[in-house]
Design a protein that fits this description.
351 residues; 14 helices; five-stranded mixed beta sheet; 5 strands; single chain
């Protein structure tokens, strides 16, 4: 190290406006010039031996200029030619690693000879997320279009003298208690709860969501047979205006088509049932409300008993009805059919 180089490094070390990374590298080189070993320098500065070796070699190769530049971490995404970017995108879309089901940034970087940060930027720019997967199921209902048109028609053009109710059961809701008390939320730490739990029984929630208002009629029963469904229909009958027809949107569960249910409906002409296609629970807006119930009240809840669980659900319904927010359906039949047709075409192509 020449006197001029030492003076420059000393100035960097003492400079108030010098970037900290430059100060760090200058200290390494000055200590090396004083005869300290790599291990001693690493211990004194609080870094690793490879880091010390890296910047000593950079200084030996390029002098002061060498440590004023950032170390290379592989080719930058912006410096890659278009063909290389295309290769990475194509490999992500159409291949898989030999020892895994999907690519990670590090595996792809190793395979393509670039940095994992470069792969991450390319994936982000092209909207690729190999680590994620969505589930789906296409309905095989022979009357899919007919039922879809009926349900969406009720959503978009509700009857003038009627109430549209989305009806379903959320069965087997578990009253789970944790084996140990969780730690509360505090600064720098999220709330905690044990991974194991104690089962204290289950309940079944019957719910009817008023599409126009967002209010919910709901009650819990131990089971979800046709007997319980009839009790719930009587509750809906009591709690709605007798002057209005009731249009119920529900799925094809056997309980809803039970002879006892059909017999009761025959005597109550204001009830009109609209069935969703099979494997199309997404058409029933009450499922969206069930998701809110699960997220806000059940998933992280601690329930000592089934009555505790039921009280919590009933309170959620009460608070919902005090300030209801309706879920608005916007998709038209044509848009849904176009998307379903595209999905079927892609599925056939893949297979």
């Amino acid at each position: 190290m020449t006197e001029e180089q030492r003076k420059t490094l000393e100035d960097w070390k003492r400079g108030r406006l010098t970037p900290q990374r430059m100060v760090f590298r200058a200290k390494i080189c000055l200590l090396a010039a004083d005869g300290l070993s790599n291990n001693s320098i690493a211990k004194r500065i609080g870094t690793s031996r490879p880091t010390v070796v890296l910047w000593r070699e950079r200084f030996l190769q390029k002098g002061v200029l060498g440590i004023s530049e950032d170390a290379s971490h592989g080719l930058s995404y912006r410096r890659l030619d278009a063909e290389k970017v295309k290769q990475i995108v194509e490999a992500t879309l159409h291949t898989t690693p030999k020892d895994a089901t999907h690519w990670s940034t590090r595996m792809m970087a190793k395979a393509q000879g670039v940095s994992n940060a470069t792969v991450a930027r390319i994936w982000d720019a092209h909207g690729l997320q190999p680590h994620r997967i969505d589930s789906f199921k296409l309905s095989n209902d022979k009357r899919f279009v007919e039922k879809l048109t009926d349900v969406v028609g009720v959503y978009l053009n509700p009857p003038e003298k009627g109430i549209v109710l989305c009806v379903d059961e959320k069965s087997q809701i578990q009253a789970l208690d944790r084996t140990q008390p969780g730690l509360p939320l505090k600064k720098g730490r999220c709330g905690t709860m044990t991974h194991d739990y104690k089962r204290n029984g289950t309940t079944c929630l019957f719910a009817a969501l008023n599409v126009a208002e967002g209010k919910v009629i709901g009650t819990c029963y131990p089971r979800h047979r046709n007997e319980e469904f009839l009790k719930f229909l009587r509750k809906v009958n009591r709690e709605t205006s007798k002057e209005l027809d009731l249009h119920l949107i529900l799925d094809n569960y056997g309980t809803h088509n039970h002879p006892n249910v059909k017999k009761w409906l025959a005597k109550h002409k204001r009830f009109h049932l609209h069935f969703t296609p099979t494997s199309s629970s997404w058409l029933n807006l009450v499922e969206r409300w069930f998701a809110e119930l699960t997220r806000k009240r059940i998933r992280r809840g601690v329930f000592k008993s089934v009555p505790d669980l039921i009280n919590s659900i009933e309170e959620f319904i009460r608070l919902n009805n005090e300030a209801p927010k309706p879920f608005v359906w916007t998709k038209k039949v044509e848009e849904i059919l176009e998307k379903v047709s595209h999905c079927k075409a892609v599925t056939v192509t893949v297979h």
